[in-house]
From TrEMBL:
It comes from Amycolatopsis dendrobii. Residues 394-729 form the NADH:flavin oxidoreductase/NADH oxidase N-terminal domain. It comes from the Bacteria. This is Bifunctional salicylyl-CoA 5-hydroxylase/oxidoreductase. Residues 742-783 are annotated as: Disordered. CDD domains: OYE_YqiM_FMN. InterPro entries: Aldolase_TIM, FAD-bd, FAD/NAD-bd_sf, OxRdtase_FMN_N, YqjM-like.
């Protein structure tokens, strides 16, 4: 087979080595525009998993790399004059220049034709003359550009700038420095890559860069001169770090990170590899790692599959989920650093934990396994900050307004579609009663509708008749009598999403008969299949506001402990908030302030009749997941408005506002919105923030709470799977909580481990003799 590899970086060279090893008859040519001793950057980082694959595939390459490694376990977080150290992480790094030299030597030994200082032929010409073209030509891939219609690439750039440098200071751990400068917050990522030096990356939000380095860039100096002036300023800003050591440049230029994604990695006999196909932010150290893993997978697929097309299809099928997972983690990490300034109020202990868990790959439980003492110190700090005893974060007490809860778990509102004429029945008693018996701090009803016309479906419950009130009172009394849990109701109006079938008959599908008229801020149907709603008049708004007030008064009489106003998911009040659904031209539409007017009027009217000693909270959709709709900035403004009007908590959900939405699902995918609102609004106004959305393990809950990303977590489907989830989570963590006396005989630690899903994936590195929690890198450790 005639194989052409475009790009002589780690991905291209390593693929050539592996392909030649598995197919000695292959004719392989590598095209590299740079000289063999040209290399840009300093160190590269590997995981033990990647190194295991390299060792298995080519022991000669692995052995040569092993002689160069700097290995260490610790991460040091330098913040506000303190150093927090977490051990057990396990890193292996080496000089990028040495890695390329090793791979080049291996290519020579195997007779691979590597053409340095040679620009590859036109991609179409190369594809015509080769059986396979491997595009490993980096983030600015010419091959990807040539066949862009097939690869369909996109590049997402963000708001931070960074400069990749080196230093002859040899760090003894992975270092994060948070610098509070006159220009704003900057962050340093640093790690050793050998006995002679370390990588040093300075990163900051573009606003900070403009204040600090913008004047230098505006002087009219050439790029080289401008970059050197920048480095001089960095030496001044980071003088305490270097302590006289040198700061080194190597084609170092200010850059804005771009995340490359391609809808396809294959065009006929051309395939993308490494950065040409995908990038992931350097803060999780993944670029070279991913590229060499790509090379391993592609070479194996070529060897195992009977044809090139089948091999390329198998390669993409195998690698795409892995890369997507890494990119999600890298994106979370990137955005965390981009928004770092919102966390600089945190105490050093919490800040360090927040930083370490930013990508969601390292978690509370994971840190306990990596470094038990460090995790214990975090638990102690959190307990001391609350004036309580040590407990898992989820079991620390919390207040929503004046309502005291023994733990931070909420059974999220979940529509059951099982009421008759709006009256909750035996099903609701068992459903909510069982969840209350299961140990959660508070159990929420599904959305209770303020009128018959405000129901979503014929099976939705209401609170607009005396019979409904009596039925709800029975359920509340059971919860209060038989359990320590509190019970809250979610109050809402379906708006344009009403008069639809039960969920299992067709989500959001209109009823085949017996429809009622629906209403909305504007005459815009939810989908082409749904009714066009009646645009509400100002007089009708007053009538609906009064319906909310009457329902709230009934809820108070029924004994509910908390009331949540539903302003999310595209129901009536949510429709007023979104510019996608509110096209009014009067005082209830147009500007954000006008769109907030009616929801705030309803909130204020309820607050006036709701008992002062019971909290009133709000659920919002923090993003519409659609261009032109509300997103994070608008969500902060909406949350702030409700906080200013006295909301005791903001329940942060997302989406379901328009049927065309394009949500980005994933584990805990909604929590970044809660995180921002908690740190920008909740902290300022003393308003609790509730995180929701694909939170399914107690490990995730503990991580979110301890990092300060939320005050409470609401879990829905998890409690459908296991109504006693909170009790079981306590047992799994060996934390004592009171069980219902009737169930006491079943209270024992689980015999088979966790009860809430599989064990978390651990990327622990225990190689090179570093078995302790705090193994430091020393230059003399190099072989």
């Amino acid at each position: 087979m005639r194989i052409s590899v475009v790009g002589g970086g780690p991905a291209g060279l390593y693929f050539a080595v592996l392909a030649k090893q598995l197919g000695p008859d292959h004719e392989i040519t590598v095209w590299e525009r740079n000289a063999p001793d040209d290399t840009f950057g300093f160190g590269v980082v590997f995981s033990d998993e990647t190194l295991g694959g390299i060792e298995h595939a080519d022991s000669a390459v692995h052995e040569a790399m092993s002689r160069e490694f700097a290995r260490w376990d610790d991460i040091d977080v330098h913040y506000r004059g303190t150093v927090s150290t977490s051990g057990g992480h396990g890193f292996a790094a080496m000089s990028r220049k040495r890695l390329l030299a090793i791979l080049q030597q291996r290519c020579r030994e195997m007779g691979i034709d590597v053409r340095f200082r040679s620009v590859a032929p036109d991609p179409a010409e190369l594809a015509a003359s080769s059986d396979l073209v491997v595009a490993a030509d980096g983030v600015n891939s010419a091959v990807r550009t040539a066949f862009a219609d097939s690869f369909r690439p996109s590049v997402e750039t963000r708001q931070c700038r960074y400069l990749w440098l080196g230093t002859d200071l040899v760090f003894d751990a992975f270092k994060f420095y948070v610098l509070e400068t006159p220009h704003g917050i900057m962050q340093v990522h640093g790690y050793p890559y050998g006995r002679d030096g370390s990588t040093f990356i300075l990163e900051m939000h573009d606003d900070v860069w403009q204040r600090a380095f913008g004047p230098i860039a505006a002087t009219g100096l050439g790029p080289g001169e401008s970059d050197e002036k920048s480095i001089e300023l960095i030496r001044e800003l980071c003088g305490d770090i270097f302590d006289g050591h040198q700061l080194l440049a190597n084609n170092s230029k200010w850059a804005t990170f771009g995340t490359v994604r391609c809808e396809s990695w294959v065009h006929d006999n051309v395939v993308l590899l490494g950065d040409a196909a995908h990038t992931a932010h350097f803060s999780i150290g993944s670029g070279t790692k991913l590229a060499m893993e790509d090379a391993l997978a592609l070479a194996a697929c070529l060897h195992e599959q009977p044809s090139v097309p089948e091999a390329l299809a198998a390669y993409e099928e195998e690698r795409r989920p892995v890369v997507a997972s890494t990119q999600r983690a890298a994106q979370a990490s990137l955005e965390w650093f981009e928004n770092l300034a919102q966390y600089t109020h945190q105490e050093p202990e919490q800040f360090a934990f927040n930083l370490l868990t930013r990508s969601r790959r390292v978690t509370y439980d994971n840190l306990k396994l990596r470094d038990k003492e460090f995790a214990a110190s975090l638990d102690q700090w959190f307990a001391d900050s609350l004036g309580t005893s040590v407990a898992p974060p989820m079991f620390q007490p919390v207040r929503i307004g004046s309502l005291e809860l023994p733990n931070r778990i909420i059974v999220s509102p979940m529509d059951m579609y099982s009421a008759v004429d709006g009256v909750p029945g035996e099903f609701h008693l068992v459903h909510l009663g069982s969840k209350a018996l299961g140990g959660a701090g508070i159990v929420m009803t599904e959305m209770i509708c303020v009128s018959a016309e405000g129901r979503i479906t014929p099976g939705c419950p209401g609170l607009y008749t005396s019979g409904q009130e009596a039925a709800w009172q029975r359920i509340v009394e059971f919860v209060h009598r038989e359990t320590p849990a509190k019970i809250g109701l979610q109050l809402g109006h379906s708006g344009r999403k009403g008069s639809t079938k039960l969920m299992w008959e067709g989500i959001d599908d209109p009823l085949p008969e017996g429809n009622w008229e629906v209403c909305a801020p504007s005459a815009l149907p939810y989908s082409p299949n749904n009714q066009t709603p009646r645009e509400l008049s100002v007089a009708e708004l007053g009538e609906i506001r009064d319906q909310f007030v009457s329902a709230a008064e009934a809820a108070a009489r029924a004994g509910f402990d908390l009331l949540e106003l539903h302003c999310a998911h595209g129901y009536l009040l949510s429709s007023f908030l979104s510019p996608l659904t509110n096209h009014r031209t009067d005082s209830y539409g147009g500007s954000p302030e006008n769109r907030l007017r009616f929801p705030l009027e309803v909130f204020d009217a309820i607050r006036a009749v709701w008992p002062a000693d019971r909290p009133l909270t709000v659920r919002i959709s923090a993003t519409d997941w659609f261009e032109g709709g509300n997103d994070a900035d608008e969500a902060v403004a909406i949350a702030q408005a409700f906080a200013e009007h006295g909301a005791a908590a903001i329940d942060v959900s997302t989406g379901q506002v328009v049927s065309e939405e394009k949500p980005k699902f994933g584990r805990s995918y909604q929590t970044p919105y809660a995180d921002r609102i908690r740190n920008e609004v909740g902290r300022r106004y003393g308003t609790a923030v509730i995180a929701v959305g694909a939170i399914s393990s107690y490990d995730d809950v503990n991580s979110l709470i301890l990092a300060g990303r939320a005050d409470l977590c609401a879990l829905g489907r998890t409690h459908l799977f296991n109504p006693q989830w909170t009790l079981h989570a306590a047992a799994a963590q060996e934390y004592p909580v009171a069980w219902p006396k009737q169930w006491a005989a079943g209270k024992r630690p689980p015999q088979t481990g966790r009860t809430d899903g599989p064990e978390p994936r651990l990327d622990l590195v225990r190689t090179g003799g570093h078995q302790t929690a705090h193994a430091r890198w020393r230059p003399e450790d190099a072989r």
